[in-house]
Amino acid sequence: RLLPDTVYVARAFKKPPVITTQPESITVFGAEDILLTCEASGNPPPELVTLNDRVTQGRDGNLYFSHVTADDNRNDYTCNAQYLSARTILSKEPISLTVTISNSVVRNRRPQMMRPSGAHSTYHTLRGQSLELECIVQGLPTPTVQWVRRDGQLSESRTLRDLSDRLLRFSNISESDGGEYQCSANNSQGTVTHIYTVSVEAAPYWTKEPVSQLYAPGETVRLDCQADGIPSPAVAWSMNGNPITGIDLDPRRIVRDGALILRDVVFTDTAVYQCQAHNKHGTILVNTYIFVIELPPQILSADGQTYTVTEGQKAGLHCQTFGSPRPKVDNGASLLADPRVNLLTNGSLQITNVSHDDEGLYTCSISNTNMSINAELEVLNRTVILSPPGDLRVRPGKTVIFTCLAQVDSKLTPPHIQWRRSGQKLMQSYAEDKYTFEGPDLIVANVQTEDEGVYTCEVITNLDMAEASGSITLVVALTLMADALSLSLSLSLSPPSFSPEFRVEFKDHVSNEWGWEELKRVSGTEKSVNLALQPYVSYRFRVISVNDIGKSDPSTPSDLHSTPPQAPDNNPEDVRSESTEPDTLVITWEEMDRRVFNGPEFQYKVFWRRVVGDGPTWHSNVTTEPPYIVTEVGNFSAFEIKVQAVNQKGEGPEPDPVIGYSGENVPLEAPMDVGVVLLNSTAIRVTWAAVDRDTVRGHLLGYKIHLTRFGSRGHHRGRRAREPESSMVVETGANEEKRVLGGLRPYSHYALTVTVFNSKGEGPPSDPPLSFSTDEGAPGPPMSLHLESPAETEMTLHWTPPAQPNGVLKGYLLQYQQIVESDDSPVQVETIDDHTLTKLTLKQLDPKSRYRFYLRGRTSAGDGEPITREGATTLDGAPPSNISLSVGEKCVNLSWVPGQRHRSVGFQVQYLNKNNGGKWKQSEKLNSSQSFYQLKGLTPGSQYRLRFTFTSPDTHTPSSGPTAGWFIGLVSAIVLLLLVLLILCFIKRSKGGKYSGSSKYSNMHQTSTRQTTKSKYVSIDYSDTLKCNEAIRKEEVCSIGKRY
Q1: 305: helix, coil or strand?
Q2: Measured CA distances, 872 to 177, 292, 791, 827, 994 (Å)
Q3: How many CB atoms lie within 10 A of CB 92?
Q4: Percent of the chain with pLDDT over 90
Q5: Closest CA to 569 of 606, 525, 534, 611
């Protein structure tokens, strides 16, 4: 039956073959060209058959002989027409070809075209069909045929050559194959060419087809229909089989550039729309179904899916929807901003080159609805081969091991390792033990030539795969047998290998300074080598063979070979002057290797002459080694110098002269016109005039500026002021005539001189020295700044003036501020106009804050650099608290913790021995910042009373009256010490030890700086220290179980 949408052409129907021309027997002379006719028709056409490059069957069924020979003399040439579909063969009676051998001389003939005839032919074909270009030629000898494309490159992939290049076949021709082709037939007599013009046209074919789809009322439908062909096809639209142009005009329907556009579709627009493309070669038709309906949106993909991929892969998260109008999928604008993320038309989210950062929960929702699904993306580590197989070079018969160690994510399935050799899978061979798999290793046993190649390991998991390759190369160790005769080496290898390299080595028989040295490298395919040798050298030679395994043993050294002498081929290199002393020319050079002397009595011939003054005459002399010294030649004079190698056989080539100079001397003159320009208080510009180069007496290296400081302008002009305090030297280039110097001290006296220098030294300084003074500048920071707090709200600053005032000191600028976390507290400023002042007291400070102080000196040039300190005021002094007592045999130790930021308070300890009724004694003056004191000289076994006398600190108040007073008060307690000598002696005798008592002051009451002296007495016994501590806390008296 006929298929719809198909164009049928008459040539597509098959026809049985028919022999239209009957071949006849023929008699020819040898070497002639002939053809046996047997024309047949049918579809498909007859197949071609080639016998050899001399005899070819053409597409027309004829048999073409480029030239006949006696071998062609047969009587069974039969023309058969075969019909493959019906398995039918038509044949005619056999004919005979008689070849008569002529006695005349056979003449060669240049090529001539037999089929096609003439010089040009044209072919028309359709895209997708097959085309065959014939090039059947005659000639003697048999011509060779070559094909080229005249208007471009002949594609080897799109063409096939057959019948000994007599046929060029296009199996699926395209438009790009259209053009000009040329066949060239060549033999020893000449060349013949034929040009083929191929024109390719095409029946219509689709490049873009419209898609059937569901639409909702009110939507706009665009059906794109694009076709191509040669000639270009015309595109027309139909609706339900009726041409659009024949239907009632509707402004909602527009055809533009082959596309049908329907706007604001309604239910009646549901129809079958046909797009038709037509040209002279045929017609094609495609149907598109448009349905205008309304359906609620749905999400067809399952919710809660987990997608697992590995790093670097492409992840696809499905969200298939259905509905009319088509639901709009929303995955978030921020997500789609990533160029790796794409939203496909089917609603799926595609992420390329995923990483661990892409892991997480993804939500797909339909816009303007509450419908959504979630999907989780899990990203695993990619499979990585840590230890890939290497490139191995082995000898035959050895065993090699390839290792393929990989790192696989723990969540992936255990990997499968597949080995391949040159792309083919390897299977474990149990019988031959050729290949053995052991974990990540591949073992190849008994390596032979057939085992060479590339071995690839593939580590395969359920999600990804990694691969790496190595290779086996078979190498053969070499045994070298070489004979060296004269300068020609005969080399042979046993066994042969893969082109080793030969290295020819030599040894100088005369000198033992050198051992065997490499002379030349030769390819392993060579059998001999010619060597370029030096004259006047006695050689021995040997040969070493090298391949990837290593070096062979050297061959037996050759006999001694001595080359004859000849004149030197070269002259010494690097001829130069190294003159360092005045009036002397020192000529030196690199000594030549003894092996390039080329003959006996080798010497160096040294030439020299002045560049100016000696004319063309050269002075010369000979020497056996460098250097050569010429005297009395003047200071720094230019000479042409050269050195030539000479021996008994003659002189070397003529050397090229170079310029050298005699020795330098110190410069004669100083720079003139030295000047100074003050730029600011710390910088100057120095200028001078260039010196005459003749007075330098050497290579001018530059100038030196000597700058000396003689103190501040504020010093008295005495002898001490004229003594230099510091100096500096600045070097400049040879072509400079000015230089800016910075870093000078302001308000200072300086002297400056300039000298010229060369490699020999400096010349005289410029005279007289140039004196100048720098202007005032901002002072340096004060040398010191100390803080002292006389009261809780006051701070006294003590400082010393700047070490570098850099001018006349006018006063100081003090800035200070509270230190807070935000660092934005206001800055207070105090201006001090008295430059002699060295301290200042600040009042009404916050006792709870720390301050930062900046102090700067001031001159008429401005404020200088500050010195910075931080500190806080000191709080009023207080008696020490938490005094701890530790009683010894003849002493008692007192310790306490000094209060932080508190002013030190002076006090004394008074003690009274109650046993002997003596007077009160007191210790030396103590300080509350000490934290420890030992009261000594106590009598063992005695009871003591202690009391403390404190000194009231100065309150610094403006009221009248004394500013210091004494008060006596009971600070903590009076310690009763009952040390009974008899009891102690008894304890010592009975227990061999001694006791010590201790107590601790606590909660000492604070006294005002204006309180009078008070005392409370507390006696403490060794055995009742805990009770006494409680008594001390209550400011009561404690003794041996008694209260007072």
Answers
A1: strand
A2: 97, 88, 11, 16, 48
A3: 16
A4: 43
A5: 534
Using DSSP bridges, classify how beta strands 488-493 and 131-134 pair: parallel, antiparallel or unpaired. unpaired
Residue 744 and residue 708: Cα distance in Å, rounded? 10
Secondary structure of 522-582 as H, E, C letters: EECCCCCCECCCCCCCEEEEEEEEEECCEECCCCCCCCCEECCCCCCCCCCCCCEECCCCE
The two three-digit tokens of residue 182, written as one number: 């040329």
pLDDT, one tens digit per residue, over 997-1031 is 333 333 333 333 333 333 333 333 333 333 434 43
How far is the first Cα of the chain from the last one, in angstroms, to the nearest whole number? Answer: 141
User: CB–CB of 1038/1001 below 8 Å?
Assistant: no
Residue among 229, 232, 235 at smallest CA distance from 255: 235
3 state DSSP class of 336: helix
Closest to 350 measured CA to CA, from 319, 379, 316: 316
Indicate the length of the chain as a whole number: 1044
Which residues neighbour 157 within 8 Å (Cβ) at sequence distance 6 or greater? none
Nearest to 655 by CA among 772, 572, 564: 572
Rounded CA gap, 839 and 786, in Å? 9
Transcribe 136-174 into DSSP letters: EEEEESPPEEEEEETTSPPPTTT-EEETTTTEEEESS--
Which segments within 937-997 are labelled E, that is strand?
A: 944-952, 965-969
- HSE at residue 346, side-chain half, CA atoms within 13 A, is 9
Among 148, 185, 181, 182, residue whose Cα is nearest residue 164 = 185
> Going along 986-1039, which residue ranges are E strands?
998-1000
Tokens 């009076």 locate to 974
> In degrees to the nearest 10, what's the CA dihedral of 407, 411, 414, 420?
-50
| Structure tokens given for 864 | 């200088």
- Do 353 and 362 touch, CB atoms closer than 8 A? no
Tell me how many helices (H) and strands (E) the chain has: 4, 87
CA distance 490 to 486: 11
Alpha helix stretches (DSSP H) within 967-1015: 981-991
Predicted TM-score (pTM) of the model is 0.40
Residue-wise pLDDT tens digits, 166-201: 999 998 999 889 999 999 999 989 999 999 999 999
| Lowest-confidence pick of 49-53, 212-216, 451-455, 1004-1008 | 1004-1008
CB neighbours of 338 closer than 8 A, spacing ≥ 6?
none
Q: Look at residue 986 and give its three-state secondary structure.
A: helix
Contact 407, 386 (CB under 8 A): yes
Q: What is the mean pLDDT of residues 462-483?
A: 74
Confidence bin at 624 (pLDDT 50/70/90): very high
Average pLDDT of the segment spanning 431-446: 85
With a cut of 60, say whether residue 991 has pLDDT above it.
Answer: no
Beta bridge partners of 839: 798
Query: 């899916």: which residue's tokens?
Result: 305
660 HSE (CA, 13 A, CB side): 29
Largest CA distance in the chain: 175
- Average pLDDT of every residue of the chain: 81
Q: Round to whole Å and give the CA distance between 517 and 160.
A: 57
Sequential DSSP letters for 397-454: T--EEEE-EEE--TTSPPPEEEEEETTEEP---TTT--EEEETTEEEE-S--GGG-EE
Residue 182, CB-side half-sphere exposure with 13 Å CA sphere = 13
- Dihedral Cα 163, 167, 173, 176, nearest 10 deg: 130
Distance, CA of 142 to CA of 168 (rounded, Å): 19
* Nearest by Cα to 932 from 880, 998, 974: 880
Are the CB atoms for 91 and 78 separated by under 8 Å?
yes
